Amino acid sequence: MKNDNTITIQNLKDLDLLVQQIRRLEQANERPEKKALQQYMSVFDNSGAPAIIIENDMLVSRANPKFEELTGFTKTEIEGRLKWPQFLVEEDRERMVRYHTLRRIREDKAPEEYECTVVTKTGQLKYIYMKVGMIPGTRRSVASFTDITSLKLTEQALRESDRRLSTLMGNLPGMAYRGSNDARRTMTFLSQGCRGLTGLDPAVLTGADAGGYADLIHPDDRKMVLAVIQKAVSQRRAYEMVYRIRLADNDGEKWVWEKGVGVFSPEDELVALEGFITDFTDQKRSEQALVQENIRLRSSMKDRYQFCGIIGKSPAMQQIYEMILKAAASDANVIIYGESGTGKELVARAIHDTSDRNRRNFVPVNCGAIPEGLFESEFFGYKKGAFSGAHVAKKGYIDMAEGGTLFLDEVGEISLHMQVKLLRAIDQGGYTPLGGNEVLRPEIRIVAATNRDLKMFVQKGLMRKDFFYRIHIIPIHLPPLRERKEDLPLLIEHFLKKYDKQDHGELISGRVLEFMNRYEWPGNVRELQNVLHRYATLNRLDLVDTDAHEPEGRLPDFRGPIEEQADVPDFRTAVRRFEKALILKTLEQSRWHREAAAKRLGLPVRTFFRKLKALDISSA
Ligand SMILES: Nc1ncnc2c1ncn2[C@@H]1O[C@H](COP(=O)(O)OP(=O)(O)OP(=O)(O)O)[C@@H](O)[C@H]1O
Asked: CA 402 to CA 394: how far, in whole Å?
């Protein structure tokens, strides 16, 4: 505090200084001169905080303008007329009188600072925080106030909303939580719903030496739960999952549904996880019952001639349908063996579509078409700027398949080096997108496919044993078309219906059908599909005869497209038709082995696959 007239008491600290100053003058035995006193009184009056001087008999002898403002009484109404307790609510009076008396017996006996409630002239209540000190050598005290009404009201509103929230949470059919992001899932708060859900009192799980919530999670689900949380938190998004918990006292288990989110500080540090967990047992049980019922119904269906878009009613295909349903009901990895064109991808899709992953992605990857150098970026993705040319971040296949199915077609083409990386990614180790630093732990199911003998690959050292055993859990062997000729009529009918706008179906004579029946179908269903597609669009039936004898009247052979297409409208169309015919012919010669066809044409595998797509051959 400075010693001039411009000084004001801005707050309680200034009041302290004022009292100390008076005390010093007293101690120095220098009676404050009239002028100095006047100065102090002026400071008192100009104080930014309400202040009063209280006499021994509790009469207020001086009040500053701020106090007038606070209470609505004027100086004339207050000074020498009103006693301090008269400004207080009934409940506070006794306490204030006690402090007042104590302070005069021994100053340090009474608290210096406290809260009380003042009643204004109009009867309004004001919450105040006050500080009181004795004026040395006198029986007077000086009190200064801070109006904390709005603070108190906010506090009350907060308490009320807290109360309402906890009533609400207490009555919810589940438990709300706040906890740390650690492997034990330490909880700092659990709503009362904890008892109903887990059989445990919230205090048991939140106390200082409580075991973490992770202990309640079923051991088979724990890894998945932690991985889902880590992944969501690292991507700043909410997590949601269904898993099992074990109940207290070995009282069985429950399925629960959890949804939560990471809470971040303004400095962007993860401070907690908050969310909600609710009983999901009934829903899960009815879902499981439905899947079982589905399996039962489907298994009991006799003579199924098609399943999830797969055509075939041979006993071999019936067995495949059973296998698909069994694989769909489990979460284990699947490997599909079969020659090219037997429908391995169709089977993989059917497993995905009938499993409870069907709301997430099915991501097909042709491992044979990815050059070694691009493998990592294709599978793991990359961040923007990870390498020159990475102008935008790109998701990898693994991330795209999160929660769903990753279909690894031609899995035998994956190099040993990449097998290690993939294995680590899908097991505990996780993976990091190129140019990134967070470790992602995927939750995917792998369905792989191959037309090679993978056991032989392992023996020859072309496939790692651990990788093989990781993917070879449920094997499905798709029979080639020549071993299920009884499916031919159904397939022919199906494809002609699909492609034939002019209804050539009737034009396929008995002799041609017979020929088709004897034909070996090296390209399996894909070849049959392409032959019929061409037949429907070009009115030509091309088959490369192997051992079968052609029917009388010969099927038309492959002919040069230019002579045949005399009505070519332009150069580009002509080139396109030529390319298509050439590729089809080469595919036939390579028994529909696409890599072999690419090699024969001297094209890089990727380019060849692009062409197949552009010319609509792969989907034909
Ligand atoms: N049983 C079937 N019913 C209907 N269409 C089928 C059937 N089998 C295969 N197809 C069709 O044949 C084509 C090839 O099938 P798919 O791609 O699933 O075979 P694949 O075994 O994965 O072949 P590849 O090993 O060459 O990748 C697809 O267009 C598919 O729709």
From this structure: 15
Q: Which atom from ligand 1 is nearest to the alpha carbon of 347? A: 18
**ipTM attached to this prediction:** 0.97
CATH architecture assigned to 12-151: 2-Layer Sandwich (3.30)
Burial of 257 (0-12, 13-18, 19+ CB in 10 A): middle
12-151 and 172-279: identical CATH topology: yes
Q: For tokens 């119904």, name the residue.
A: 297
Site of tokens 């202040």: 51
CA nearest ligand 1 atom 8, residue: 343
| 273 CB neighbour count, 10 Å cutoff | 23
CA-closest candidate to residue 114, choices 78, 88, 79, 137:
88
Side-chain-side CA neighbours of residue 192 (13 Å): 9
Q: How far is CA 87 from CA 52, 112, 142, in A?
A: 12, 19, 15
> Taking the domain 322-479, which CATH number applies?
3.40.50.300
Residue 594 CA, closest ligand 1 atom number: 26
Yes or no: say if 115 and 129 are a contact pair by the CB < 8 Å rule.
yes
Strand extents, DSSP E, 218-377: 239-246, 253-264, 270-279, 306-307, 310-311, 334-337, 362-366
State the distance from the centre of ligand 1 to the C-alpha of 467, rounded, in angstroms. 26
pLDDT of residue 345 exceeding 80, the answer is yes
Distance, in Å, from the CA atom of 452 to the CA atom of 472, rounded to the nearest integer, reads: 13
pLDDT in tens, 68-89: 999 999 999 999 999 999 999 9
| Half-sphere exposure for 31 (CA within 13 Å, toward CB) | 2
CB 338 less than 6 A from any atom of ligand 1: yes
Phi, psi of 119 (to 5 degrees): -105, 125
- How does 298-337 read in b/e, with b if 16+ C-beta sit within 10 Å? eeeeeeebebbebbbbbebbbebbebbbbbbbeeebbbbb
**CA atoms within 13 Å, Cβ hemisphere of 61:** 11
Ligand 1 atom nearest 620 alpha carbon: 29
Task: Sketch the domain layout of the chain as residue ranges.
Answer: 12-151, 172-279, 322-479, 488-614
Q: Which of 40, 4, 47, 43 is nearest to 22 (CA)?
A: 40
> If you search the block for the tokens 């077609």, which residue do you land on?
409
Mean pLDDT of the chain: 83
* Segment 234-250, tens digit of pLDDT: 989 999 999 999 987 77
| Residues ≥6 apart with Cβ < 8 Å to 281 | 254, 255, 256
Instruction: Classify residue 439 by its DSSP letter.
Output: P
Count of beta carbons in the 10 Å neighbourhood of residue 432? 14
CATH, range 172-279: 3.30.450.20
